[in-house]
Specification:
The protein is of the alpha/beta class and 421 residues long. 43% of the residues lie in helices and 16% in strands.
Length: 421
């Protein structure tokens, strides 16, 4: 066995200060692995998601290096574009694949490489690194891609899609281990002929140090004109997959009913559909909805605190029944009741844990009915908050990070014992 700490190389095109689900999960897992005594290097790009603009303090350079809570972070050049247009996004993904592969040559003594989806050009890079360094390759499966491209209507079935699906299956087969974020994904892969024994599930979770119950922030309430109002909020990416027009439809129904001053909607985040949604709300003359730009991760909990209920929503399609939106776990951590417009595995969590109410995706009337129910039954909201706090420990990120590390170590230990890569 080599006389040094195990060294994990993690490839991801999303990482803090970005605040989306892949960035949070990767950082929080890597931070815990460092605490456990491992050496962790992350190769990523200049932070730019979802606006396609490089964050202040960073540049899109060939090589940048920094330390974040003991994790070595290497940022490489990529072709950066907003999340608009399939071909441009593919160029973005492919540029990271090439840059990350090249950068890996300068990271020494690596024992295992992990590549994370949703898009799998990052995972292609991880596979190439594994071949070049002769080390195990772990596929962290966050989305069934490219099927999700078709599900949101970004691209129809075509020769290109079928080629990507063949590449997808190749990567599943080449991986020493697949770590899926949902049980549904594992079942889908097994039905497609991937060996079930190498597929393990580590769900998303919540950083309990950051997301925990707190009183409503009075300063923020006053600033946004929300003092005394029942606030329903959506926090996250405003993309094609989320079909947030449903929330605008609900706001319009309530406004027509004369309930605009009773229930107010807050939509915090950015994404490809953000400006179109703002314009749509203005055209409808909606006075009961406020759009807010993305905030730093450290500030997100402050905004969660001013909500009475969180809305989680995805487009109505069979594929999304296999998805568990990561914001569900942050809501549980905050003790925040959920109105859940997603079917399948995540809806089962909401029902089983009693932390919210499931409504039909893209059904604005159903959303309005459930909002009015909670508005008129604050004791139900209180009960849901208590159930959140009873359930949250199952989804503690530090526990889940340790579980993922155990799985990776068990599957690749022979390589650790003999590798001097």
């Amino acid at each position: 066995m080599v006389d040094r700490p195990v060294h994990i190389l993690f490839l991801t095109d999303n990482f803090p200060p970005e605040v989306n689900a892949p960035a949070s999960r990767t950082f929080e897992h890597c931070r815990e692995w460092v605490k456990a005594g491992l050496r962790v290097t992350v190769i990523t790009c200049a932070p730019n998601f979802p606006s396609g603009r490089v964050y202040h303090g960073y540049r899109n350079k060939i090589w940048q290096s920094e330390m974040m809570d003991g994790v070595r972070v290497i940022r490489v050049w990529t072709y950066i574009t907003a999340n608009e247009g399939f071909l441009k996004r593919i160029l973005d993904y492919q540029s990271f694949m090439v840059s990350a592969t090249l950068a890996s040559f300068f990271v020494r003594n690596v024992d295992v490489v992990i590549g994370t989806s949703p898009q799998f050009f990052t995972v292609c890079a991880a596979w190439m690194v594994s071949v070049l360094k002769r080390i195990p390759f772990v596929f962290e499966l966050r989305d069934i891609w490219p099927e999700s491209i078709k599900a949101v209507g970004a691209m129809q079935d075509s020769l290109a899609i079928r080629w990507l699906e063949k590449l997808e299956l190749f990567l599943y087969r080449q991986a020493k281990l697949i770590v899926s974020v949902t049980h549904s994904f594992r079942d889908i892969l097994a039905r497609r002929g991937i060996e079930p024994k190498k597929i393990h599930v580590v769900t998303n979770g919540v950083d309990m140090l950051r997301f925990r119950p707190q009183p409503k922030d009075p300063e923020l309430q006053q600033k946004l004109g929300l003092t005394g109002k029942f606030v329903a909020g959506y926090v996250g990416t405003h993309g094609m997959a989320h079909h947030l027009e449903t929330i605008l439809d609900a706001a319009e129904i309530l406004q027509r009913q004369g309930r605009a001053h009773d229930i107010h909607f807050v939509m915090l985040g950015d994404g490809a559909r953000k400006q179109a949604l703002i314009k749509d709300a203005a055209n409808r003359g909606l006075v009961n909805i406020t759009f807010l730009d993305s905030v730093a991760k450290a500030e997100v909990a402050r905004y969660w605190s001013i909500l009475d209920v969180s809305i989680i929503h995805l487009k109505k399609t069979d594929l999304f029944s296999s998805v568990i939106p990561s914001k569900l776990f942050e809501c549980i951590g905050m003790g925040l009741p959920v109105l859940h417009g997603v079917t399948g595995e995540s809806a089962k969590i909401v029902r089983d844990e009693g932390v919210g109410i499931v409504f039909e995706p893209e059904n604005a009337k159903d959303l309005v009915d459930q909002l009015l129910y909670l508005y008129g039954n604050r004791d139900i909201c209180k009960s849901m908050k208590e159930r959140c706090l009873a359930a949250v420990h199952k989804y503690d990120r530090s526990f889940l990070a340790a579980e993922m590390l155990r799985i990776i170590t068990s599957a690749t230990l022979p390589s650790f014992m003999s590798s001097g890569t």
